[in-house]
Specification:
Oligomer: heterodimer
Largest sheet of chain A: 7 strands, mixed
Structural class of chain A: mainly beta
Number of helices of chain B: 0
Number of strands of chain A: 11
Largest interface: A-B, 25 and 26 residues
Order of helices and strands of chain A: EEEEEEEEEEE
Largest sheet of chain B: 6 strands, mixed
Mean pLDDT of chain A: 91
Radius of gyration of chain A: 13 Å
Helix content of chain A: under 10%
Helix content of chain B: under 10%
Shape of chain A: globular
Mean pLDDT of chain B: 90
Strand content of chain B: over 45%
Number of helices of chain A: 0
Chain lengths: 115, 115
Amino acid sequence: SAVISQKPSRDICQRGTSLTIQCQVDSQVTMMFWYRQQPGQSLTLIATANQGSEATYESGFVIDKFPISRPNLTFSTLTVSNMSPEDSSIYLCSVDHGGGTGELFFGEGSRLTVL
Amino acid sequence: AQSVTQLGSHVSVSEGALVLLRCNYSSSVPPYLFWYVQYPNQGLQLLLKYTSAATLVKGINGFEAEFKKSETSFHLTKPSAHMSDAAEYFCAVSDGITSYDKVIFGPGTSLSVIP
């Protein structure tokens, strides 16, 4: 299994500001995935982060709005830029621990409220 | 493109009654299918997965699911509901089970258990 720590666990932000979410894994992993879960909704994949290369973004998500860093095999950050109330969501970091199981491990999420 | 539908955004059962949560998928290749559970204010946890072995899959906490290719379904069941089963349940699909394969989540079903 993998233990994932996310910071902050929750925050209240002002419109127009940016916030960076950190994701730390207790072991080295190849891919890290960032999901968004809007209130009462399912998870939507924002991007996939591979160490040493630029993140791959899903349709509807762009690097200028959600820049991602992946400096090593245990850490990643997601920044939510120029926030608006529509960005109020839970942002979840997840990893596939490998070994061909297909199982994703999730952090507890970062709950952002934008006023 | 892969997609997942879950019939019923809210399901309510009595304690001790059968739990049935429905999931149908669409995939252009043989799918890998998952059920995840999310307890309040927590990240997601894998319940069970289908990866082309046995069509009847047993998971944690007494849950099981059956893969039916002809019906493109992967419904989740539990013979007797417990109060602790109250949570959000997500069905998910993937093309593969390597670290590079994206997992697409369904809209979720909220399960309530009535004493």
